[in-house]
C-alpha cells in the first residue's frame, strides 16, 4: 500500500515539474501562467503590496518562491497524502474481506480433507467387502460347479436307467434259430472235411492226456478212437468225435460269463439271485449289460482263448485216433501246429459264428432267457427234448446218448420262478447203440 502512495507522490512531482517547465516557457514569451482563484488572489495581493510599497527585489523573489512551493508542492503532496489515505482506507475493507475469504477457504479445505479421509475409509471398507464378496462368489461357483457335475452324473444315470428300462429285444427268436442252425451246419462240414483229409495209423498210447480226454469225451468215445478198426470206420468215428469236440467247445464257451473261471462262477451265481428276486425284464437287461462289459471286454483275447480251447480238444481226437502226422515229434505241439496251419481259417469261422450266436442270445434278447443246451454222454434218450442224429427209428429205453452232434436252443426260466422251459431247436445226439452197430466189439 505504501508503494502505491509513493507512486502517487512521484506522479504529483512529475506533474509539477511539467507545469513549471510550461510556465517558464510562457513567461519567456510574455505570457502569464494560468492560476486558480486562490493563486490569483495571492498574486493579486502581492501585486497590490508591490504597488503600494516599494520592496526589495530579492525579498519579493523569495516570497514568490515560497508561494510557488506552497502552491506547486505542498498542495499536491497534501492532496496526494489525502488520496493515499483514501486508498488505504478503501483497501482495508478489501484486505479484511480477503482474510475472511482465506479463512472460509481454509475452512472449506479442512472440510474437504475430512471428506476425503472419510471417503478413503469408505473405499477401504468397500474394498474389504469386495474381496469378501469375491471369495464368497468363488466358493459359490465351486459349489455350483460340483452341483452341475453331480447333476450331469445324475442325468446320465437317469438316461441310462431310462434306456435300461425301455430297452427291448434287438433280435427275434427266429433269427437266433437261424444262427444256431448255421453254426451246426459249419461244425458238421468242418468235421467231415478234417476226417476225410487225414490219414491214421497205429494208435500211440498217450496216458498223459487220457484223463483230460475222458473228462471231455467219456471213456466210451476214447475207447472207440483207440479201437482197431478199418480206415472207413475210423473216419466215421473221427468225424463224430470232432463234431462232439466242436459242439461241446461252443456250448461251454457260450454258457460262460467270463473267460476267467472264478469270475465266471461269481457272475453266474449273482445272475441266479437276480433272476430269483426280479422280473425277467430286469434280469435280462442286467444280463445284457454285464455280458457286453465282462465277457467281450477284449474281443481279440476272447477269440484267441476260444480258438486255443477248440484246437486242444481237436488235438486230443487226433492223438487218440492214431494220426500219422505225429511222427517222431512231440505229439501235442505237432497236433496243434498242424491244426492251426491247415484248418485255422475253418476253425476261426466256427468261432465267429459261435460268438455271433452268443452275443445275440446274451445281449440281443432281454425279454426272456434263451440258452444253448446239449446232452451229456451217458444221458438217457428223451424224444421230447432231443433228436437222434442217425435218423428216425425206435430207440430202446435202455439206450443212452454217446455225444451231442448238433446244438439245441431253448427258452429257460429259473427254478425259483416256475422252471418253465420251451425248446426252440432240439439238439441232435449220437446214441451208443449207433456206434455199437458200427463197432460191435467195443
Automatic annotation (TrEMBL):
The lineage of its organism: Eukaryota, Fungi, Dikarya, Basidiomycota, Agaricomycotina. Residues 33-57 have a biased composition (Polar residues). This is Uncharacterized protein. Residues 10-20 have a biased composition (Basic residues). Residues 1-63 are annotated as: Disordered.
Amino acid at each position: 500500500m505504501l508503494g502505491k502512495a509513493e507512486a502517487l507522490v512521484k506522479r504529483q512531482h512529475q506533474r509539477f515539474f511539467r507545469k513549471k517547465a510550461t510556465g517558464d516557457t510562457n513567461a519567456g514569451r510574455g505570457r502569464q501562467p494560468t492560476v486558480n482563484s486562490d493563486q490569483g488572489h495571492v498574486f493579486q495581493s502581492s501585486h497590490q503590496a508591490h504597488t503600494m510599497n516599494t520592496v526589495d527585489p530579492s525579498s519579493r523573489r523569495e516570497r514568490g518562491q515560497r508561494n510557488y512551493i506552497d502552491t506547486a508542492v505542498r498542495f499536491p503532496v497534501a492532496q496526494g497524502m489525502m488520496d493515499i489515505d483514501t486508498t488505504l482506507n478503501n483497501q482495508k475493507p478489501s484486505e479484511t474481506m480477503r482474510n475472511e475469504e482465506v479463512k472460509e477457504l481454509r475452512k472449506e479445505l479442512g472440510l474437504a480433507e475430512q471428506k476425503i479421509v472419510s471417503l478413503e475409509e469408505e473405499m477401504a471398507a468397500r474394498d474389504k467387502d469386495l474381496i469378501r464378496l469375491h471369495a464368497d462368489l468363488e466358493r459359490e461357483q465351486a459349489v455350483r460347479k460340483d452341483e452341475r457335475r453331480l447333476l450331469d452324473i445324475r442325468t446320465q444315470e437317469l438316461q441310462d436307467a431310462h434306456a435300461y428300462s425301455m430297452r427291448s429285444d434287438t433280435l427275434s427268436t427266429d433269427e437266433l434259430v437261424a444262427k444256431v442252425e448255421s453254426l451246426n451246419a459249419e461244425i458238421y462240414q468242418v468235421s467231415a472235411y478234417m476226417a476225410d483229409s487225414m490219414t491214421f495209423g497205429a494208435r500211440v498210447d498217450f496216458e498223459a492226456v487220457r484223463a483230460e480226454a475222458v473228462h471231455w469225451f467219456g471213456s466210451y468215445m476214447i475207447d472207440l478212437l483207440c479201437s482197431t478198426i478199418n480206415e472207413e470206420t475210423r473216419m466215421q468215428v473221427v468225424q463224430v468225435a470232432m463234431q462232439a469236440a466242436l459242439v461241446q467247445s461252443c456250448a461251454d464257451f457260450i454258457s460262460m460269463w467270463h473267460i476267467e473261471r472264478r469270475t465266471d462262477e461269481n457272475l453266474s451265481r449273482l445272475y441266479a439271485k437276480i433272476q430269483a428276486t426280479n422280473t425277467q425284464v430286469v434280469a435280462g437287461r442286467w444280463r445284457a449289460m454285464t455280458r457286453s462289459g465282462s465277457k467281450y471286454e477284449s474281443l481279440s483275447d476272447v477269440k484267441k482263448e476260444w480258438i486255443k480251447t477248440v484246437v486242444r480238444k481237436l488235438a486230443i481226437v487226433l492223438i487218440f485216433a492214431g494220426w500219422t502226422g505225429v511222427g517222431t515229434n512231440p505229439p501235442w505241439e505237432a497236433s496243434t501246429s498242424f491244426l492251426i496251419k491247415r484248418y485255422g481259417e475253418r476253425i476261426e469261422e466256427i468261432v465267429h459264428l459261435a460268438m455271433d450266436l452268443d452275443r445275440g442270445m446274451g445281449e440281443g434278447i432281454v425279454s426272456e432267457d434263451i440258452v444253448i443246451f446239449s446232452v451229456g454222454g451217458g444221458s438217457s434218450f428223451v424224444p421230447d427234448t432231443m433228436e437222434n442224429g442217425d435218423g428216425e427209428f425206435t430207440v430202446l429205453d435202455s439206450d443212452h446218448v454217446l455225444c451231442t452232434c448238433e446244438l439245441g436252443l431253448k427258452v429257460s426260466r429259473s427254478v425259483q420262478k416256475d422252471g418253465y422251459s420251451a425248446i426252440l431247436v432240439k439238439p441232435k445226439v449220437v446214441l451208443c447203440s449207433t456206434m455199437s452197430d458200427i463197432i460191435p466189439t467195443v
